[in-house]
Design brief:
With about 325 residues, this protein is mostly helical. It is built from 12 helices and no strands. It has a domain of about 35 residues. Helix 7 packs across helix 8, helix 8 packs antiparallel against helix 9 and helix 11 packs antiparallel against helix 12. The longest helix is centred in the middle third of the chain and has 66 residues. Component of the conserved oligomeric Golgi complex.
Length: about 325
């Protein structure tokens, strides 16, 4: 049994090829190892001996049975020494790698922080965009509402220029503006009245009240202006005063004011005619002598006196004339 095992080992050794590259490389490495050890041993012997007589034969003496038996231990020791040397050589690289790892960790933390901030900024931007869209829609709706309100106020409210025209002086150059504004006020008030009748709202009542105040103030100013005009007018035919005609025409909407204005116009016209008749009796005109100058001629004086009733009749007819000329008919109002 033992011989069989020995035979197998011998056969294995004999069958082993010693010319393979791997085996040659291994033998070369082992020979180098023995050479290193022999060199180291001879160096140690040269250091301990004074003459160095055994330095040359130390390598051959080192290749002993004990040395070959401890080959594995020597290889492991050399492997350990190489590993330690390799580790020592890579300590600086390890430190740099550790520093690089710390930098990478810091960068990772920074990237995580930046990613969180970007996420928060993205969420804030989404909220901002949503808010902006909401505000844009609200602005569009408010713009439409503003346009509707502007159209509503333009239709049911006077402009500042029209309000100013209603409070301006009724001079010949300002009369047209006043009457245009008054006509516009009448139209707007009628539209506002229809609005209140169709859909009663607080805004409609407020506008109607404001327009009514403007209208009453305008009629009162117009009435006072007609009264002052009748007191200061000295022309023969008030029908020539276009502003007075328009004023009396507008006052037809206020019967009380209109009646007082009629009375004022009649009194003014009667006063003017009486003054002219008295002037004809006493002073005459540029081409006609006064009637009193004919007192020495009874026939002619009686003839002139007889013409006085006719003049009075003509005066009465002309007194009715201004009323028709200053006041428009109902069908044209």
């Amino acid at each position: 049994m033992a011989s069989r095992v020995l035979d197998k080992k011998l056969k294995k050794v004999l069958d082993m090829r010693t010319d393979t590259p791997a085996l040659l490389e291994s033998l070369e490495a082992i020979s180098t190892l023995f050479s290193d050890h022999s060199t180291g041993s001879s160096s140690g012997a040269a250091a301990t001996t004074a003459d160095g007589e055994k330095a040359g034969g130390a390598g051959h003496e080192y290749n002993t049975l004990d040395a070959r038996r401890s080959l594995r231990e020597d290889l492991e020791r050399q492997n350990y020494n190489l590993s330690a040397c390799f580790q020592k050589s890579f300590e600086r690289l390890r430190d740099r790698l550790e520093g690089l790892e710390g930098c990478v960790a810091g960068l990772e933390d920074g990237c995580s922080s930046i990613s969180g901030r970007l996420s928060a900024a993205d969420a804030s931007m989404q909220q901002f965009t949503l808010r902006a869209e909401t505000l844009r829609d609200q602005r569009s709706q408010l713009g439409k509402h503003a346009d509707q309100v502007s159209l509503f106020l333009e239709r049911f409210q006077l402009t500042p220029d029209e309000v100013e025209a209603l409070s301006a002086q009724l001079e010949p150059d300002q009369g047209r503006r006043f009457f245009s504004a008054l006509l516009r006020l009448k139209t707007v008030r009628a539209s506002c009245g229809r609005l209140v009748g169709s859909s009663p709202q607080s805004a409609g009542f407020e506008l109607l009240e404001q327009l009514s105040k403007h209208q009453e103030a305008a009629y009162e100013r117009l009435y006072r202006w007609v009264q002052d005009r009748c007191q200061t007018l000295e022309e023969e035919t008030p029908a020539a005063d276009v502003t007075l005609q328009a004023a009396v025409r507008c006052l037809r909407d206020r019967p009380l004011y209109y009646a007082h204005c009629q009375e004022s116009i009649v009194n003014m016209r009667r006063k003017l005619l009486v003054q002219r008749f008295v002037m004809a009796l006493t002073s005459g005109q540029s081409s006609v002598r006064p009637i009193e100058m004919q007192a020495h001629d009874p026939v002619r004086c009686v003839d002139q006196r007889r013409k006085a009733p006719a003049a009075h009749y003509i005066a009465g007819g002309r007194m009715r004339g201004p009323q028709d000329s200053l006041c428009w008919r109902r069908k044209t109002a």
